[in-house]
Amino acid sequence: MVLESIRIAWLGLIGNKLRALLTMLGVIFGVGAVIALVSIGEGTRAQITAQIQQLGTNQVTVSATRAAFRVEPDDIEALRREIPDIVNALPGVQQGAVTAKSDIAQYDVRVEGTGPEYLAVRDRGLVSGFFFTDEDVAQRQRVAVLGTTAAAQLFGQGVNPFNKTFRLMGQTFTVSGVLESKGFGAGGQDLDDVILVPYATLQRMMGLNRLQQMVFKVRDAESSPQVVAQIQDYYLRKHRTADSVRVFSQDQLLETVGQTTEFITLFLGFVASISLLVGGIGIMNIMLVSVSERTREIGICKAVGAKKHHILLQFLVEAMVISLTGGVIGVGLGMGTALLAGKLTSFPTRVSTMSVGVSFGFAAAVGIFFGLYPAIRAANLDPIEALRRD
Question: What is the 8-class DSSP label of residue 378?
Answer without folding.
Answer: H
